[in-house]
Structures are given as structure tokens and as C-alpha cells.
Amino acid sequence: SRRVGSTSLPRPAAINHLEPGDNSSGKLASSGWTFNKTLSKLIRKNVLRFLDPERDISILKGSLRPGDVVHYVFDRHSTTNISENLHRLLPSVSPLKNRHYRLCAIVGNSGILLNSSCGSQIDSHDFVIRCNLAPVEEYADDVGHRTDLVTMNPSVVQRAFRDLVDDEWRRRFARRLASLSGSVLWIPAFMAKGGEERVEWALRLILRHAADVRTAFPSLRLLHAVRGYWLTNKVHIKRPTTGLLMYTMATRFCEEIHLYGFWPFSHDAAGKAVKYHYYDTLKYEYTSSSSPHSMPLEFRTLRALHHQGALRLHTGNCH
Ligand code: CTP
Fold first, then answer.
1. How far, in Å, is the centroid of ligand 1 from the Cα of 295?
2. For residue range 233-242, what is the model confidence (pLDDT) as tens digits?
3. pLDDT one-digit tens code per residue, 224-265
4. Which of 78, 201, 222, 287 could make an S-S bridge to 56, C-beta 3.0–4.6 Å?
């Protein structure tokens, strides 16, 4: 079998158009935002110096064979083998090849979305990206239901679908997969060790129940490349969150990007408690210093970009 590793990053270019902003977490004025096309184009150009999301959004079938050994991105000393099922589900061409959208929404999972009534606004975008198979039907008024791409960390199988312990959870998972008909399901299967079995269960169910879900498995270099891009902008992010990965990738396909559900704080600007996720009881300790992510830093970065008109962060309601 062959060994597949990540390629090294291009040398960072000096780009200084981002200002990380201050430490406060105040809400954003909803009026007075104008799209800065020039800055958005510059960001796209600079992201492309580090990665080509069209290519890196998924490993392609032709580049791996069943049995190949892959090193995990975060656990470089651990490896996994490409299973027959995974190989069958690798796309032959990039699922976003030659795609361009004028208006995209990226929906993060913060409880700030609850009672926002943003559902129809979110659904009106040309392309809607969601994270970690977050439920939509029960929350459609606030989060919408259109899904063109949705991510699924292997840990989601455990966290949201009880490790598929019995028929009932397997049925729920299969129903959720079936609801993704025609969408891209983006599975970062090679980030951290430990999820191998979960990925395999999920893949079996996908093959059995969700024939027209288009699966994608991010390239091994994606995460390093995204981190490298932000580093050149003086934003030191150890492990970019799914949300930031999606924004960085979306700059390639989308002209104007709107973010919803990005609010990694336990209270809103008026002091009202905000759930970590709109759909479960996970707590904020998750964003503490023991977390691999730096969500507040990411948020400040995105907010600075919002103020510069490169993207639009929606943190209020949409009435
Ligand atoms: N997010 C946020 N504020 C929150 C929760 C989530 O800004 N209170 C954003 C983050 O960018 C996050 C994305 O929404 O990546 C999706 O949320 P979630 O599924 O909770 O991601 P995590 O599992 O926390 O992290 P990961 O990025 O590792 O998937």
C-alpha cells in the first residue's frame, strides 16, 4: 500500500488587510453595511495562494486506492487505511468544480439563531452551507432548511446520534441522510484518530440509504493551508473551526458571503443567555482554553471583516 502525506505550504506572503479588532463582543449594527467587492476579490486571490478550495474540498477517487495508508492530520503518527466503502464514496471530480454563486450563507450552530426568524432569509441565498449535520426541520423558522453543503465531523455520530447504538438511532441517522438528497456531505475523516469506526458505520448507512448524497472528504493539506492563510493575516489560529474552514473555502465559490449563527459567547449584547448550540445542551466550557479552537479570536477576525464589508455577519434577528 502507498503512504499519503500532506504537502508543505507555500511560503506565506505578507498581506495585512485584516484588523483583528478589540475584545468586546457587542452586536453588530444591522444597517449601513455595504459589500466591499474589491476586498472580497483580494481575499479570494490571497486564499488561492494557499489552497485551491475547488481541488482541496475533496480528495478524488483517482488519487487513492482501497488499502492505501493515510496519516491523520492532527495525529501524524497514527494512520488509517482507505476502506472499500470510503473509496466508493470519493468523488471522481470536485463537487464544486466550476461552481460560482452570487450569494452564499454559512450557518454556524450558535444559539443566537433561536428566535431570530432568519430561516427564510437564509434559504433565499444561492448556496447554503451548514455545519455538523445540525438539525433543521424543527428549527426551520430560525435556521431555514435549504442545505447545499453540510459538514459532518466523525464525532457528530457519537454526539448527535448516540453512536448509532440501536435501530432507533440508526433510523434517525438514515432519515437525516436521506433528507440531504442532492447536497454535498463533507466529511473530514482524516483529521484526528479515533473516529475510524464511526466513519465506517456512517459510510455504510450512506451507501445503503442516501444514494444521491454527494460525499466529499477534504484533502489532507486543507487545514494547514487555511491556517497558513490566516497566519499571513496575523491571525494565529491553532485549529480553525468548521465555520472558519467553510468561510475560507467559500471565498472561492461565492461572491458575497453571509454568516449566521456565529456567536461563541454565553450572552448576547443585551446580557441574555445564549445557548452554545441552537439544538442541544452542550455548554460553553467547550470554548474554554482546553478547547482546540479559538472561537472568540475567529469571531473578532470575522467581525473586522464584516466592518470592512468583506462578509456580512448576522447576529441579530431578521424580522
Ligand atoms: N459557532 C459559533 N458560535 C457557537 C457555536 C458554533 O461561532 N456558539 C460556529 C463555529 O465556527 C463552529 C460552527 O459554528 O465551527 C459549527 O458549530 P459546531 O458544530 O458547534 O462546531 P464545533 O463542533 O464546535 O467545532 P468544529 O469546528 O470542531 O466542528
1. 8
2. 999 998 999 9
3. 999 999 999 999 998 999 999 999 999 999 999 999 999 999
4. 222
Condensed to tens digits (0 to 9), the pLDDT of residues 121-167 reads: 999 999 999 999 999 999 999 999 999 999 999 989 988 998 888 99
Q: Which residue did the predictor score with more confidence, 53 or 114?
A: 114
User: Which atom of ligand 1 lies nearest, measured to the CA of 111?
Assistant: 8
Candidate from 131, 239, 280 with most ligand 1 atoms within 8 A of CB, to mutate:
131
Active site residues: 293
CA atoms of 193 and 62, how far apart (whole Å): 24
Identity of the amino acid at 201: W
Q: Kindly state if the Cβ of 94 falls inside 6 Å of ligand 1.
A: no
Q: How far is the CA of 287 from the centre of ligand 1 (A)?
A: 9
Q: Which atom of ligand 1 is nearest to the CA of 284?
A: 8
Query: Does ipTM surpass 0.95 in this model?
Result: yes
pTM reported for the whole predicted model: 0.91
